[in-house]
Amino acid sequence: MLTIGIRAAPKAVTFVVYDADEVGVLNVEDIRIPLAFHTPDALKFIRNNLLDILREYGIERAGIRVTEPNAQSPNITRIQIEGVVQEAFASSLLKSYYVGQISTISAQLGIARADFKRYVDGQLDWPIENWASLSKEQREALLCAIGASLA
User: Residue 94: which pLDDT band, with cuts at 50, 70 and 90?
Assistant: First the structure.
């Protein structure tokens, strides 16, 4: 079963395609929003590219890491992108998807909430090839993808 994990940022969306059967990563990539795009075009760009990726890989399940509700300085652009990703999931042929804050993703993975940040920061190693070479955003997206495979 193939899953995808998403971590949005104001200028890009990081995604990881995960093969739950082979316990391996198939792709780690960013969808970078062109600088010339205004918000509506940027959101459309993200949606269209994400739907193409879901179809191309035949993704069955998905997860997205969303902004914490108590974030000190929430980024409106990131929140808009997260909404568009959720809409794309709902419009796709996915069997299931989940929207996760740290507590939700940790529960999906069966780890302590406090350990989530330690995995993302690289203080703890997840048993997957090249874990240490991934960025924080890529690790969050991968943990979302693994969580989706366990749902």
Answer: very high
